[in-house]
Amino acid sequence: MTAGRRRGAVTRAGALPDTSAPGAEYDVVVVGAGVVGCAVARELARRPLRIALVEASGDVGEGTSKANTAILHTGFDAVPGSLEARLVRDGQRLLADYARETGIPVEPLGAVLVAWDEEQLAALPRLAEKARRNGHRTTRVLGAGELRAREPHLGPGALGALEVPGESIICPWTTTLAYATQAVRSGVDLHLDCRVEKADPGAPHRLITPRGVLRARYVVNACGLYADRFDALFGRRDFTVTPRRGQLIVFDTFARSLVRHILLPVPGVLGKGVLVTPTVYGNVLLGPTAEDLDDRTATGSTAEGLAALRAQGGRILPALLDEEVTAVYAGLRSATEYDDYMCAAHPALRYVTAGGIRSTGLTASPAIAAHVVELLADSGLVLGAERPLAPVRMPNLGEAFPRPYRDAELIARDPEFGTIVCHCERVTRGEIRDALASTVPPGSLDGLRRRTRARAGRCQGFFCGATVRAMFEEAGHPWPER
Ligand SMILES: Cc1cc2nc3c(=O)[nH]c(=O)nc-3n(C[C@H](O)[C@H](O)[C@H](O)COP(=O)(O)OP(=O)(O)OC[C@H]3O[C@@H](n4cnc5c(N)ncnc54)[C@H](O)[C@@H]3O)c2cc1C
């Protein structure tokens, strides 16, 4: 821990700290512990401030942040001049550096935007020019022959591509967890299972939760799909969130040799379109769909959605359809009626919104955090002198980097790393034990999966499920699985 700094508390139940006495209130409460809220809390932890991060669900990264396509975008195709374009460009650089520092797995595979008809082929120079306006000068148009040499398993009919070096794949779960871990170790209190149901704006603000009232001088809204509803608690009606569902299919690791780059489509009106990409865990993803819905909880997959994906995937990479499917999942993007992030300061209210963080929020997260801290300062928050954050080094979940089961020295020191519990994903007892005892321990078996990959493989826990559950229960986690 950094000298002179207390570690923050992580709570999941019971009364919240008493913030009722004058001067006992939090300086800032960040509401929502997705990748954005966790990044903001970490950024604020650099300052001598009393910070809380509060989350409705029982873990960090339980909302949109757990179900995306896990690409660290370059932002080559953002709307030039938009806030999103700036924050994605800066976020990409900041997150790549942060990943190196903390051990978040990243693989810079590069992307190719494949043109399947003459119209798409004609759009490539325009996209290259847009990329240039976004500061990316290394894109290059590839002819059909060069493209096929690069991606020999592509389906027939690919006419050419735009090569985008620098597009990378990343572990989104470790990213959110690294921010939260570093924030807590640097003094931020993390209150889980703590939905803010009402707000009583004032000096200080009162945030009403089922676990009691939190008082705060400043509030940050990082509520993802509920950012507009949270805004309404502060009397703001600046935008409306429309959940845009993205369904995805995860193919088993045997499919990994079929694809070398991130295969992107030429983008259309509904967003980035359906892609095929490897994951850092060695799987291959196909998706996402883009469906505008009313229901903010509709994270189910549908037969039509999956059939449409298979049809598109079969054109891009026909052999993919012969591979085993490990899982399907869906995430909901926070689309709004505007084409940009909805980040705004409301100085009179001492309140900042980070809403409308749509399909690039993982990449942009560290830059959004820095921007939000600037907005807080513009709203009158005295930040104080910057100080170093407590260091973190995250367990590696990436296949391209040394995993514990392959590390003879580590196993000699600690034989628990030599005992494999989840054979599909080769997760050891040592990794599960350490995750259960970590700074932000999992609140459920799914949370444990996101920290270790246990139960994420082709058998989906059929073989290891009972052992993993026993370890989870033995570690003294009384809360039920969600
Ligand atoms: C299919 C799909 C693919 C994507 N692909 C990529 C990609 O490849 N690369 C990329 O950079 N981005 C991608 N994204 C976007 C990225 O995942 C999101 O932008 C990002 O996760 C948004 O994070 P967030 O913290 O704003 O929201 P969330 O992760 O949803 O977090 C918001 C949190 O607020 C909590 N909350 C809400 N209301 C309250 C309340 N009243 N009190 C307390 N807590 C509350 C919620 O429980 C939730 O945990 C993708 C998204 C989707 C859906």
Question: What report would you give on this structure?
Answer:
The protein has 482 residues and is α/β, with parallel strands linked by helices. Helix content is 29%, strand content 22%. The chain has twelve helices and 23 strands. It has helices at 35-44, 83-102, 118-133, 144-150, 172-185, 227-233, 303-316, 361-378, 408-413, 429-436, 445-452, 465-474, and strands at residues 10-11, 26-31, 51-54, 71-72, 106-107, 111-115, 140-143, 160-164, 168-170, 189-191, 198-200, 205-209, 212-221, 242-251, 262-265, 275-278, 284-287, 291-292, 325-335, 342-346, 351-355, 420-422, 427-428. The strands form five sheets. Strands 1, 2, 3, 10, 11, 12, 13, 20 and 21 form a nine-stranded mixed sheet that branches. Strands 14, 16, 17, 18 and 19 form a five-stranded antiparallel sheet that branches. Helix 1 (35-44) packs parallel to helix 5, helix 1 (35-44) crosses helix 8 and helix 2 (83-102) crosses helix 8. The longest helix is centred in the N-terminal third of the chain and has 20 residues, at 83-102. The structure holds flavin-adenine dinucleotide. Flavin-adenine dinucleotide binds at residues 31-37, 54-57, 62-65, 68-71, 73, 195-196, 222-226, 230, 246, 288, 331-333, 357-363. The site of flavin-adenine dinucleotide has 40 residues, from helix 1, strand 19 and helix 8.
